């Protein structure tokens, strides 16, 4: 079970509290996690990555295991601790815009 | 007893303001979508409880919200605005070709006849339609493809399609306006378009009378006379008596003819309202006095409406979609400011009072007259 922490605005939009808990087939990658999020919560489509280009939105970052994974390739495996659910995959809004 | 419902979109959320027909006491609901920019909200003319809202954020992009109960509850619907085919390019600030990139929805215009059909004006400028209540959006790409699209260039506020007017007498005819490209019209429900900017003169572009490139800020129409259009251009207040085929200036005795908002009285099609703003470099009222100007002659002769509005130390702006008029008798006039006030007049502009004073900056105001 993968754990995902969303920014508060996206939790409100998805009407969820706390971490998301998602089943994701191996290999666990950014793409497979985001696919699972969007499948379960279709209202989040387009809010984390662009509908058309599938690029991460510029002011969002992906953190896990105290590392910034934002620039990793979308199909690169995420750390084992994320895949096992020991550590969350964190979608975080950049400090920008005041 | 009649009621009115004012829909205020702000920099940090949506507010729904309701009152009875006297328009003296108001209930304030909100913020809905707290923390998000609400560029525009509008209700269906045929189902007033069906509302659409454009919710966006620099972090999370675009969301479209829909309400079926007049704004009490909302549900997110489709937010995929994909340009039709290969998007192509428009001009960038440095004159180089730049790919069309969707940024946000500036304006939502529900159909006059079908609550499930709604149009969206977006940045980078394009025209979209949904026929399933906002779930799916299709670009009517004849607008960008009509020929001048590659020459369009963004203004300081972005290359936004901000005005959509549906002709109540002809379902095939739609008017739109884009900053800083100009006004356009379709006579075949969006398949083909042509610029309608003849008579506009803009000193800020190399050819002041060019076919496209004018920074149109807003256009208004009275439903009883759909061939008569009133325009607030960057500078100049204009009118057309031939559905935009030609324009003439009607700025007359305005203290400044720069501004954003313009609207038409509900029952007097020659009575129009603007809010003069000092200049494009100083987005606040001249002499620090917030004055709505009303013309009862379709332009040229204007009177200042000041009763109840701040007449000193006022440095707010009134944005293009932040004025609306209800259809009661006397008609109510409403506008919102970047200082967070929403002002209402229940006597067609003769006197004013704030409904609320301390909202986030107001981006848009619409009003529904409910019976």
Polypeptide structure, described:
- The complex is a heterodimer of chains A (98) and B (371).
- Chain A contains three helices and five strands.
- A five-stranded mixed beta sheet of chain A has the order 2-1-5-3-4, with helices on one face.
- Helix content of chain A is 22%, strand content 19%.
- In chain A, strand 3 (60-64) and strand 4 (67-68) form a beta hairpin.
- Chain A has 98 residues and is an alpha+beta fold.
- The longest helix of chain A has 11 residues, at 30-40.
- The radius of gyration of chain A is 12 Å and the shape is globular.
- Chain A has one domain: Roll (Ubiquitin-like (UB roll)), CATH 3.10.20.
- By secondary structure, chain B is mainly beta.
- Chain B has a single domain, classed as YVTN repeat-like/Quinoprotein amine dehydrogenase (Methylamine Dehydrogenase, Chain H), CATH 2.130.10.
- Helix content of chain B is 0%, strand content 40%.
- In chain B, strands 3-2-1-30 form a four-stranded antiparallel beta sheet, with no helix packed on it.
- In chain B, strand 15 and strand 16 (182-186) form a beta hairpin.
- Chain B is globular and about 50 Å long.
Please summarize what this structure is.
Helices cover 22% and strands 19% of the residues of chain A. Chain A has 98 residues and is α+β, with helices and mostly antiparallel strands.
